[in-house]
Model the fold of this input.
Amino acid sequence: MILLLLACTNDETVELSAGDYQFSTHDMDDACLDGALEALFMPEGRTTPHQFEFPIYVPDLDELPGTFEISLREPFVEMPVDVKRLGQTGMSLTGLMEAVELNPSLYGDCVTTMSVSAEMTPLTKNSGEMTALVDISEARSDADDRCPPLDADPCRVTLYIQGDKL
Done:
């Protein structure tokens, strides 16, 4: 969820400075499981921003293209992401996790495949906002077959995220 997209203010481009950023989900649209995944991405409800557990490194444009590893919060840890330059000062990010566990107390050993794509717009050199698209597919279970039916396969969760450099 490291991406930046070209942003202009009075004909000047704004570029995020490289470094570790603290990101938080501020809103979301959940088209999966009748909104049940809100608990995964915004566990205290949609009115309370949810800070990622781990900081995320935002690379310098000179480091691109490149593959980086990010950790957001359980179960989204050690996810490899490909980051590319987008436009003059932007970045695009894509990643895939093939066995993300849903809430075990509700869905047992059910896992899904989740792919992520995102673009970030710098607000200042030390802050930005991002829209991340999380496509969830292939719900499967080895033992207890408690996977919920997805509203669509894949179904999409859209996250609206903000971040500040630490």
Q: What stands out?
A: The chain has two helices and eleven strands. The radius of gyration is 16 Å. Residues 8-165 form one domain. The first helix runs from residue 38 to 41.
